[in-house]
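WARN retry 2 of 3 for item q-0093 after timeout on previous attempt; input resubmitted unchanged.
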Amino acid sequence: MGAVIAIPFSKKRPDPLESERRELLGELHAAKAELERARRAFDYATEPELVEASVYELGALEARYSFALRRLREEGIVSSAGKRGD
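OK item q-0093 returned
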C-alpha cells in the first residue's frame, strides 16, 4: 500500500481592496435606489413641507451618490462614463 500524501488546503485570505470595492459598489447601488425612491416621493409631494423635505433629501442622496461614484473612479472600478472598469 502506498503512502498517503496530505496536501494542506490553504484558505484564501480575503483581499481587503476587493472588500472595499464591493462595499463601495454596494453603497453606490443603494444610493441610486434611494435616489429613485426619493424622486418618486418628490413627484407625488403636494404639501409645501413635504416638497421642501424631498428637496433636502434629494440633495443629501445626490451628494452620497456622487461621493461613492468619485471613490469608485479613483479606484479605477468605474470609468468616467459610469461603467465598470473590469
